[in-house]
Amino acid sequence: MAEYQQVTVAEVVQETADAVSVVFDADFDYRPGQFLTLRCGPVARCYSMSSSPHVDDRPQVTIKRIPDGYGSAWVCDNVRAGTVLDILPPAGIFTPSSLDDNLLLFAGGSGITPVISIIKSALSQGGGRVVLVYANRDESSVIFASELRALADKHPDRFMVIHWLESLQGLPTPRHLTALRPFTGFQSFLCGPAPFMDVVSQALRSMGVPRDRIHVERFISLSGNPFEETVEEPADGDEATVEVELDDEQHTFQWPRNKKLLDLLLENGIKAPYSCREGACSACACRIEQGEVKMLQNEILDQEDLDDGIVLACQSLPVTDEVKITYS
Ligand code: FES
């Protein structure tokens, strides 16, 4: 079972008619753009954090009620100030490697959640320019409208917001987005519904933006429940050796060939990050420094990530006799 933390909800803020922010009375480390996994009654769901670790005193997630969405309905109907929730540690790799980078951000609907976390951190800590393209159905569905306006007023030379309202302009097409050509040298971050992200990715690629400058966060739906599952029993058989660097500490383990890396680490008391355990969320992502592994499943990393040596610990088995892995 996952090592989870219990946190008390400080307040629930109604952001729009169907979106709420759940603010926690808690203090933990996280990076802008990361997500939390919450126990929502009998299921677990991942929700991005909309707070900035650099600006906001209290962490928060923002959740939009989705028609027929069990997790979002459970939160909107059950969570109040004083509710105690089970959460897994912050996870995810949708985070700028430098807050000084120039950033071109695309958010569709509630995809603004991790993006506003990045915006607040970059504007307060970095020195680069930030351009946000924010697509919504109509004006009433724009989450964080006044907060974005205040940030644009405070940083007129560094921050620009381009609102795109489907009710007025229809859906954006790759041709519309070519107007963003002056910003294609920036690091791009995309979060929103799949059709929106497909259009944006296509537009960026057609303007010559390389894959390694396009960072995509996909909404995922967990089929399992990491709060309930137990770690498998140790397997017998042939073993490799793995050296792992996590939180500035080095560990060396014998690694059975048929045991997934994440299971090995958890069994040995290492607090490696994870959420879905099914290759879908990237919470467990780490980097191979030496050797080779094979992944049983991968629904989240793209070729560029794989070329950089990124793998999913929850799906990795050893191939070579010696493997070196880092989480830094
Ligand atoms: S824990 Fe989600 S991909 Fe590994």
UniProtKB/TrEMBL annotation:
Stated name of the protein: 3-ketosteroid-9-alpha-hydroxylase
Source organism per UniProt: Kibdelosporangium phytohabitans
Location of the 2Fe-2S ferredoxin-type domain: 240-328
CDD domains: fer2 (cd00207), PA_degradation_oxidoreductase_like (cd06214)
Cofactor(s) in the UniProt record: FAD
UniProt GO MF annotations: 2 iron, 2 sulfur cluster binding; flavin adenine dinucleotide binding; metal ion binding; oxidoreductase activity
Domain FAD-binding FR-type stretches: 2-97
Keyword Transcription attributed: no
One of the Pfam families matching this protein, by short name: Fer2
Keywords attached to this entry: 2Fe-2S, FAD, Flavoprotein, Iron, Iron-sulfur, Metal-binding, Oxidoreductase
